Each structure stands twice: as C-alpha cells, then as structure tokens.
C-alpha cells in the first residue's frame, strides 16, 4: 500500500479508537465518581487531554504509515491491534467500570507496548520513531495520574 493510503487508514483507525474510547467512558470525567477522587496535583485541565490525544494520534498515524510501508510484519500488526484494544479498553476499565487498579494494569501494558514499538522498530523507521515520543511521554504522565489515584483513594 502507498504511504498516503496507509496514513489515511491509520488516521481512521486511531481517531475511531479515540471516539470509541470516549463513548465507552460514559461521561467519566464529568461523573461524581471521578470528580470526588483525590487527583494528583499535576493533573492537567480537561482540554489538555483532547489536545494531547489529537497530537499523539496524528504523530502515531504518521509513524505507523512509515512502519508498515517499510516493515510490514504480522508481529507489528498484532502489536498495533493490541495497542488499539488497550487504548480503548483503559477508558472502559477506568471510567466505566471504576476499576482504578485494573486501569493501572491496562495503562502499564499500553505504555510497555508503545516503548516496545519505539525500541523494536527504530531501525525500520529511522527518525520517524521520534514521532512516538509524545505518546510515550503522555503515557508516563497518565500512568502517574492513575497510580496517584490508586494510592490516594
């Protein structure tokens, strides 16, 4: 597939995953359950989450289009599918099911998977691997927020 076609495909899948995850949150950030939680002092305002995820998914889609153009493998595809499931699943586990510890497990797995992409396929995508940095940084922040909530509630 051409890189542009791959980019469109990954944009559709990644932003579709964000939309599905948002729907599965069941108004999570606005619920009294979430509002009443003790949150980390470094928790960003709500608008930052939307801006961060938009940036992350744009960068991730470009990265994936380069990866699959240069190095299509069943392993990469399986890990991408796992990433989608974990990314969407965290919203459901944390906000819909109120499973703080379960959410932490999911986000740790997701973070590990994105770091796996970065280090495993670095040679295949060369400088494009740095497009994963916003995702990696954000997941470290999100993991710390989830952990703080687990410890303090």
Task: Explain this structure.
- The chain is mainly α and 153 residues long.
- The chain has a single domain (3-152), classed as Up-down Bundle (Ferritin).
- The chain has seven helices and no strands.
- The chain has helices spanning 3-24, 32-35, 46-70, 74-96, 100-120, 122-125, 133-152.
- Helix 1 (3-24) packs parallel to helix 4 (74-96).
- The relative contact order is 0.16.
What would you say about this model in short?
This protein is mainly alpha-helical and 153 residues long. It has one domain: Up-down Bundle (Ferritin), CATH 1.20.1260.100.
Supply the key terms.
single chain; 153 residues; mainly alpha; Ferritin; elongated; transmembrane; TspO/MBR-related_sf
Describe the secondary structure blueprint for this structure:
Blueprint: H1 3-24, H2 32-35, H3 46-70, H4 74-96, H5 100-120, H6 122-125, H7 133-152
CATH class: Mainly Alpha
Shape: elongated
**Class by helix and strand content?**
mainly alpha
Order of helices and strands: HHHHHHH
């Amino acid at each position: 597939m051409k890189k542009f076609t791959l980019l469109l495909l990954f944009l559709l899948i990644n932003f579709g995953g964000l939309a599905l995850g948002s729907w599965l949150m069941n108004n999570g950030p606005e619920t009294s359950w979430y509002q009443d939680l003790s949150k980390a002092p470094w928790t960003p305002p709500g608008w930052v989450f939307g801006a961060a995820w938009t940036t992350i998914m744009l960068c991730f889609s470009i990265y994936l289009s380069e990866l699959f153009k240069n190095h299509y493998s069943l392993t990469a595809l399986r890990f991408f599918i796992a990433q989608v499931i974990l990314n969407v699943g965290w919203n459901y586990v944390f906000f819909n099911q109120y499973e703080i510890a379960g959410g932490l497990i999911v986000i740790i797995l997701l973070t590990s998977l994105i770091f796996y992409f970065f280090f495993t396929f670095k040679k295949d995508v060369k400088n494009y691997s740095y497009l994963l940095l916003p995702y990696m940084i954000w997941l470290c922040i999100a993991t710390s927020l989830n952990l703080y909530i687990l410890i303090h509630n």
